[in-house]
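Quick log. Single chain, no ligands specified.
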Amino acid sequence: MPDSGWWWALGAAVTLAINITALIVIPRGRKPTAAMAWLLLILLLPVVGILFFLLIGTYRLPQKRRDEQSRIDALIRAMVGSARITTTDAAWPRWFQRVVQQNETLTGLPAVGGNDAELIGDYQASIDAMAAAIDRATAFVHVEFYIVAFDATTKGFFGAMERAVGRGVTVRLLTDYVATRRVSVCAETLAELDRIGVQWEWMLPVQPLKGKYQRPDLRNHRKLVVVDGLIAFMGSQNLIDRSYDSPKNIARGLMWQELMTRLTGPVVASVNTIFLSDWLIETGETLLQEHLAAESVPASTSPGALLCQVVPSGPGYESENNLRLFLSLIYGATERVILTSPYFVPDEAMVYAITTACQRGLEVQLFVSEIGDQGLVYHAQRSYYETLLEAGVRIFLYPAPYILHSKHFSIDDDLAVIGSSNMDIRSFSLNMESSLLVRGSSFVAAMREVEQGYRDAGRELTLDEWRREPRKATFLDGLARLTSAVN
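-> predicted structure:
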């Protein structure tokens, strides 16, 4: 039939137009790997690829939100003023001076001295420590978590917030819209927040009918608590039971292993600034009365006082602030690099930095979970093991049924980073994260004890063992690695 020829011709013309458009549009502003992944998906599955691209192809927040982030960054730069550290530049390695300068250029937040920090690796103990700090609040409490749930594990935390509200303390809470709504006890959690009088708001709500919409998998992944601007907590832990209140996790016996840090000193002002910025973006409310300048926060006079710098990152920024920090520190290391990340799916730059560290003769170790709770991410992570092992990276597997969810790494004997950021493409580009850079041998020594605990609990993966992995498993690893590049 002649009509069929016309349909074939029309189909070929449409396909050609789609391919040409994709070649023009997709590579613009994207890393080559991400662009290639999108192009491959669209060329192989045009309809599916286009639908996915329309849904999640924009990896930045809406321009209005980015403009607001830029305005807030300008305000931060204007406010920090005299908060810069008093330590002379000559006291630091030159490369480290440049890292601190880079972080401040990207975020507006300076490094500040005179801080104390305590690491808390016990799951319930960290929640109890935060609750105890809230029980001493006299002015305000700021709570920001990717996931919030009211359950048996967090009941004491909610009780502390209720008592604080009863004393006349203002308690504000931010939680991620998508992540918290997925929790089985979400309805009970929101009802409890309302009952006790907490002022709470969603972060990155996906509510198109209310004019609030962005790519739905752009999430606010930060975890922090600030009490009176004098005490802060940061790290990897969400405000939820160790099983994440998930029937599937409970059936598998999964339990999350975390690491938080309790902070006092001028750096608390920077942690508070992150909350104030997120609150302003989500509500339009400026809380100037709850901003404490770093110089007004009591500084530690201890000989072991720490230098700290908070580094927020995410799709609201033009740059991948956390990735740049991580790369700079790894390239600056002279003795050892020890990494801990539950979801380790690095980009090419991170792989090169890690393997180059091995080639420079550094000791490089990576701690990850033996099992995974997210199939695609778990297999994508495994796809890097052979390259890392061949380069000389020692990989330690934390044992089942635990998910090693801690996110931190240490450089040499005096530098460390702890926070909410995984070492994966999602945390580098798509999630709003917060990282804490710490300079101080006492803090790193405490982190070394945590790392030794991981070694004692787990086992080392060898190259010989890895090469005996079934081909079916490594095929899935490679396939998952391709999908991880779509961002």
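The radius of gyration is 23 Å.
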